[in-house]
Amino acid sequence: MSAATPSTPLAIADFRLFWLARLTSVTASTGLVVVLGYQVYDLARSGYGMSIAAASFQLGILGLVQFLPMALLTPIAGVVADRHERRRVAATANLLVVAMALTLALVTRTGVATLPLLFLLAALLGVARAFFGPAMSATIANIVPAELMPKAIATSSIAWQTASVVGPAAGGVLYAVRPDLTYWAAAALTGIAVTAVISIRRIPPPEGNREAHPFRQMAEGLAFVRNERFLLGCITLDLFAVLLGGATALLPVYARDFLFVDGVAVGSRGLGLMRAAPGLGAALVAGTLALRPLNHRVGTLMLGSVGVFGLVTALFGMSRNFHLSLALLVLLGAADMVSVFIRSTLIQLNTPNAMRGRVSSISGLAISASNELGEMESGLLAALAGAPAAVIAGGLGAMAITAIWARLFPELRRADTFAPQYRDGAPT
Q1: Residue 260 β-bridge partners
Q2: What is the full DSSP assignment across 76-144?
Q3: Range in 167-171, 306-310, 404-408 the model is least confident about
């Protein structure tokens, strides 16, 4: 690190704005998603008279309608992030979230919410996330020196995970007070995020990207990831492990029908705490990594953390004690944070600047597929075998994926440091 380089990314004004935007936008989106899932499940049970199995399947549909727009638009979003000014792309996507949250607030307040309408609004959230993720992920490497990237990723993760604690907990409480309050708060917080993003200094798009044909750029991005086995292994490990091991989609089922305190279901307040618990574990780990970033055996640690994620998921599926379930979710978030930190740093430092938007979009699509498509898988399996069996099977599946990927991609095991390993281009 040169004498001119700050010792912390927070000394950089643009990074502070980036951090604020991430904190407020994720607080809004996590609170919004939590109560939207609970509203869908509760409406299916009480408003439509569905059984637990049928209402659980509605949560799967909710995940699917968020995933489909991302699957269709992510290749386009990656090209947009590489051809246009990334901060404006991110700000525009967040404005769509503001509109979606305001609409949810109004339909909830007036009592006209229906399942098709909630699914439609959830799909709009998927559209916004398709463009927001690649633009924001590609921006961080343009405002922070390469030598500060591990600290910047960890510090950014503190914002993300703090928001993942505050958003669900506050959202659950606000929903219990009055269901539309969470949506009004989400709109206000996302508006702050828009202001912060647009205040970052202008970052010109990489030279040459606007001259190339967009479809050719999409193909180049896919080919780059496919040919770089190291990146392919990082991205697909998360895709398949979380696709199988995600338990969060079924938390509304546990909150309403499986976990009780003093004989009373924990409800939306308990759901908020459960959705916040992984964020608490992740925030503690992120704070530690921001002070003392990992420097060695990063590949082995990433694989090990994914295996622990699967094990804790299976244990959560077996638990019927609310407080034990919360503790397991904290451990789940801590294990996931280690994997996210290592994977995000490796992907950013192993991708040339001209490709970062497209590679970030592919990585974002994998994350979305693992989360939203995983919700569909969890909802379907829960409808067939019950929520506990679905969660336990998913955790065991994530452990199996870790073992398989350790054999398929020995590059991951051999990665000792964050040093760039890609063949083409140079880190910027």
Answers
A1: 265
A2: HHHHHHHHS-HHHHHHHHHHHHHHHHHHHHHHHHHT---HHHHHHHHHHHHHHHHHHHHHHHHHHHHHS
A3: 167-171
Nearest C-alpha neighbor of 276 from the set 34, 3, 19: 34
SS3 state at 202: coil
Task: Give me the residue label for tokens 């914002």.
Answer: 159
**Nearest alpha carbon to residue 420 among 212, 153, 230:** 230
3 DSSP 8-state letter: T
In a domain, 341, yes or no: yes
Residue 423 lies in a domain: no
CATH number of the CATH domain containing 320: 1.20.1250.20
Supply the angle between the helices 115-143 and 13-42 in degrees, to the nearest 10: 160
Rounded Cα distance between 185 and 97, Å, is 12
Interhelix angle 322-349/149-177, rounded to 10 degrees, is 140
Confidence class for position 50, pLDDT limits 50, 70, 90: very high
Q: Band of the pLDDT at 343, cuts 50, 70, 90?
A: confident
Nearest to 395 by CA among 280, 305, 308, 327: 308
Task: Specify burial of residue 40 (Cβ count, 10 A radius: 0-12, 13-18, 19+).
Answer: buried
CA nearest 283: which of 8, 30, 17, 13?
30
pLDDT of residue 426: 41
Residue 141: exposure state from Cβ atoms within 10 A (0-12, 13-18, ≥19): buried
- DSSP 8-state symbol, 200: S
DSSP E strands: which ranges in 221-349?
Answer: 260-261, 264-265
Spatial separation of the C-alpha atoms in residues 363 and 137, rounded to whole Å:
10
Cβ neighbours of residue 51 closer than 8 Å, sequence gap 6 or more = none
Choose between 407 and 296: higher pLDDT: 407
In-domain check, residue 290: yes
The residue type found at 172 is G
17, two tokens: 């704005």
Task: At 264, give phi and psi (nearest 5°).
Answer: -115, 135
Mean per-residue pLDDT, 340-356: 74
Q: How far is residue 354's CA from residue 205's CA, in Å, rounded to a whole number?
A: 8
Q: Domain of 230? A: 10-414
DSSP string, 248-280: GGGHHHIIIII-EETTEE-HHHHHHHHHHHHHH
Report yes or no on 38 lying in a domain. yes
Count of domains in the chain? 1
State residue 265 phi and psi, 5-degree precision.
-60, 140
